[in-house]
Amino acid sequence: MADDFFLMVHDDVPGRSRLSDRILGLGLAGALLGELAILGAIGIDDGSVKLTGHALPPDPLAADVYGDLMDEQPRPVRDWLNYLAQQAPERVAKRLESENLVYFKAPRVRLPGIAGRWTPTDITTAGWPAIDVKLKVHNGHADVHHLMLFGLTRATGLNHPSLWEVRELLQDPAVLQQTLAPLRSSPPLLELLAQTEAAVGSAVTSQRIT
Question: What is the mean pLDDT of residues 101-124?
Answer without folding.
Answer: 80
